[in-house]
Amino acid sequence: SCPLFTGNPHQENSEVSSLPNLKDCLPMPFEDSRILLVVSYSIVFAIGLPTNCLTAFLIFVQIRKKNILAVYLLGLLLCELLYLSTLPLWIIYVQNKHQWTMGSLACKLTGYIFFCNIYISILLLCCISIDRYIAVVKSLETRGVRGQKKAMVVTVIVFITVLIVHCPAFTLDDGEQTQNQTACFETLPLNSTLTSLNFARFIVGFAVPLIILIFTNYNIFQSTKTSSSLNNHQKAKVKYLAIAIITIFLICFAPYHLVLLIRSINFIWNQNDSCSFEQRVYTTSVVFLCLCTVNSIADPVIYVLITVEVSTIKSVLLRFLVAMVNVPSKEEGGHLFGASQHGDIFITS
């Protein structure tokens, strides 16, 4: 499956032998989720790679037009493309019954990319929401604050920070491949160190960003209701983008972090027999964890909401639904990537 949890930093030789690993909780129900994982990864890879490549090209066009949000979205796309390139390795790993045969360095690099992808994506979603909050709610007070160069600086800072924070992945025992350990970033059961790390990841990597998203998007919704400077089309785009960001965050990242929290709480209350719980929740945990992968095909949706007119989106969706039921449509819509007929704060700002 995806890498489940970060492992322990290297410890003294006297302590290494006592570290828990996947073998301590065997047998695990790997087969229950194998087909689902392989099919899911394959579909995401087949859809995500071409759509993200196409969207990245289109985003470059928007960047040339001085679109600020395009900078954040380009960061998301580059991160997703890097993660998508590792999916074939996870497919091989799952098919091989969670036996990593490609060496320690490949395991560490693949796990590193996975963890970085999660938190770069979360932080850039927060950046998009904060940018919309400044542009919509605080437009008068923050005139001149936003800018494409500033967005580039923020994006670079996000990348550098997350990449540095996760560098210890290359020194973790979880990535070492030995005769006694052939799993890749799957430490079962938990231990005190991992439990502390999981609580930190839940608070810093999920709870704080969730608060930011709720605060910014709630105020955006309230502001658009009374705004006289935005027309109905612009208000609709603001709302749809906010809904898309919150939905992506909750579907892709909430289950993963809730699993971390639940497993960590269980370890605190039941340290002597946590394996039985791990075995019961393993399949559910893996499925929830791998919802993170869905994020790799969600970014093009944000691009569409940023650049395409709402009426065009509705028309395309209507045509699709009509085609599905094979009923002739009288609705006439524009091309999906046709020019906007209305001023759009997303394209001009």
Automatic annotation (TrEMBL):
<dbReference type="InterPro" id="IPR000276">
    <property type="entry name" value="GPCR_Rhodpsn"/>
</dbReference>
<dbReference type="GO" id="GO:0000082">
    <property type="term" value="P:G1/S transition of mitotic cell cycle"/>
</dbReference>
<feature type="transmembrane region" description="Helical">
    <location>
        <begin position="282"/>
        <end position="306"/>
    </location>
</feature>
<dbReference type="GO" id="GO:0005886">
    <property type="term" value="C:plasma membrane"/>
</dbReference>
<feature type="transmembrane region" description="Helical">
    <location>
        <begin position="199"/>
        <end position="220"/>
    </location>
</feature>
<protein>
    <recommendedName>
        <fullName>G-protein coupled receptors family 1 profile domain-containing protein</fullName>
    </recommendedName>
</protein>
<keyword id="KW-1015">Disulfide bond</keyword>
<feature type="domain" description="G-protein coupled receptors family 1 profile">
    <location>
        <begin position="51"/>
        <end position="303"/>
    </location>
</feature>
<dbReference type="Pfam" id="PF00001">
    <property type="entry name" value="7tm_1"/>
</dbReference>
<keyword id="KW-0807">Transducer</keyword>
<keyword id="KW-0812">Transmembrane</keyword>
<feature type="transmembrane region" description="Helical">
    <location>
        <begin position="151"/>
        <end position="171"/>
    </location>
</feature>
<feature type="transmembrane region" description="Helical">
    <location>
        <begin position="68"/>
        <end position="92"/>
    </location>
</feature>
<feature type="transmembrane region" description="Helical">
    <location>
        <begin position="112"/>
        <end position="130"/>
    </location>
</feature>
<comment type="similarity">
    <text>Belongs to the G-protein coupled receptor 1 family.</text>
</comment>
<keyword id="KW-1133">Transmembrane helix</keyword>
<dbReference type="InterPro" id="IPR017452">
    <property type="entry name" value="GPCR_Rhodpsn_7TM"/>
</dbReference>
<keyword id="KW-1003">Cell membrane</keyword>
<feature type="transmembrane region" description="Helical">
    <location>
        <begin position="35"/>
        <end position="61"/>
    </location>
</feature>
<feature type="transmembrane region" description="Helical">
    <location>
        <begin position="240"/>
        <end position="262"/>
    </location>
</feature>
<keyword id="KW-0472">Membrane</keyword>
<keyword id="KW-0325">Glycoprotein</keyword>
<keyword id="KW-0675">Receptor</keyword>
<dbReference type="GO" id="GO:0010972">
    <property type="term" value="P:negative regulation of G2/M transition of mitotic cell cycle"/>
</dbReference>
<keyword id="KW-0297">G-protein coupled receptor</keyword>
<dbReference type="GO" id="GO:0004930">
    <property type="term" value="F:G protein-coupled receptor activity"/>
</dbReference>
